[in-house]
Amino acid sequence: MFSIRCEPVRRLTRIFAPIVFLLALITCSAAALAAQVKTQNDPAEPMQNKPNPKSLPRPSGAIPRSSVDEKSMRELIERLVSCGTRNSLFSWSDVKRGAGCGRDQIVARLNGMAAATAGKLQVVVDKFEIASQRTNNKPVPMENVYAVLPGSDPAMSKTVFIISGHFDSRASDVMDPNLDAPGADDDASGVAVSMECARLLSGAAAAGRNSFRATLLFAAISGEEQGLLGSARMLEWVTQQGYTVGGMLDNDIVGSDSAPGAPHRVRLFSGSGNEDDNDSRSRELARAIEEIDGREAIRLNFVIDRLGRGGDHYVFYKAGLPAVRFTEPLEDYRHQHQTPRMENGTEYGDQIKYLTFAFMGDVARDNAEALRQLALAPAPPNDVKLSGGVSPDAKLAWTAAEDNQRAGFEILWRETTDPRWSIYDFVETRQDALLQGVSTDNHFFAVRAVGKNGARSIAVPTNSGRNLPF
């Protein structure tokens, strides 16, 4: 009589079961992949061969990471933290404590930079009064600090690219200005990034390494914690000066990268606007920054901001202007908006010791390089239109002012579900393009200007007019 002992069978089952499971998983994955490939079996577009577009290299002279001065960034943050609080409702005349103390540290830093540029960098202290719910609806005095580097191109010097951080801080109770609020990360870190960009770019301009066509504005503003008040005033101020905002880069909470696996990418938030293709001007600014700095540095977030939170870029975004927010990869809420204290063995408070200066230096470099290339670029095209519905071809047309420093225009396209543009074609002098065999229904389109130096403007999507014809 033939028999088998049970225990050896159990052992064999334990040994081979994982292998059987793995084979089944591979089989399922292969089937899923085959199904996915099958669903992507679409007709080729364009039907004819895709053009081989001319592609100019990006501008030379990229800012090296080694040129970022982390030590000076730390020193500025230490000086700001030493003010005890920088709550905008505290005294503006106390030189040792409060918002006025913070202002003085920033102005001193910028005056030193201005001297090094022989006055090319212009320092402005903008004083104003403003009211909100967080000022008890009473007008209160506030001040912003701007450093302006005028553009060299008469036709573009009234276009301004802004980088900003807010120097005011808050404790757990935003209405109590007497509580300590060191504000190292929120937002002395953003101020330090803005000021380091001022140093890097004004120094490059003074040394003749870059001649920025557009104007650059490096800002440190107040009243953010009282309802984005300093940002509202800054928009008012640039408008009064006759500037058109080419882009606004808000740096708010960009000082810490303490999660395992660092260094990580900085998050870049941008709102979608009201277009069905999600191609707001802010979204195009975010795409441009990622393209300049690389996907390894920038993590695109296609939302206006963190849930239930807001920053100074929001004021510009709501005005229909291109504005984005940089924020660290993973926030620690024990060290934001907290009165310094120990509670149940946990330390709360926004202190310098929680900052990561190597990460902050990366953020400064990424901002500076984005600003450099954007300020070197020609003006974006205007009135970009798409036609060709109910036809096999997409047709684009646009307008643009004369510019002897422009090399031409890049025609951009993408699937409607893709987050990024690809270059379809390049035209030099024409202001129209025919994309043969490309469906207007399956893609979104945009045009951007390209300088002879390789700098690209922000892309301008087509005004596609996808409404019903009746």
Fold and architecture overview:
With 470 residues, the protein is of the alpha+beta class. Helices cover 29% and strands 22% of the residues. The strands form 4 sheets. The chain has an 8-stranded mixed β-sheet, with helices on both faces. Helix 6 links the parallel strand 6 and strand 7. Helix 3 runs parallel beside helix 4, helix 4 packs across helix 8 and helix 6 packs across helix 8. The N terminus is likely disordered.
Radius of gyration from the CA trace? 26 Å
Mean pLDDT: 91
Unreliable spans are 1-10
Oligomer: single chain
Counting DSSP E segments of at least 2 residues, the number of strands comes to 17
Strand content: 15-25%
- Measured distance between first and last alpha carbons: 87 Å
Number of helices: 8
- Along the chain, the helix and strand elements come as HHHEEEHEHEEHEHEEEHEEEEEEE
Structural class: alpha+beta
Sequence-ordered SSE layout with sheet pairings:
Blueprint: H1 6-39, H2 70-81, H3 99-116, E1 122-130, E2 140-149, E3 159-166, H4 184-206, E4 215-221, H5 229-240, E5 244-251, E6 266-269, H6 281-293, E7 298-301, H7 313-318, E8 323-327, E9 341-343, E10 346-348, H8 357-376, E11 382-387, E12 394-399, E13 406-415, E14 422-427, E15 432-435, E16 443-451, E17 460-461
Parallel strand pairs: 3-4, 3-5, 5-8, 6-7
Antiparallel strand pairs: 1-2, 2-4, 6-8, 9-10, 11-12, 12-15, 13-14, 13-16, 16-17
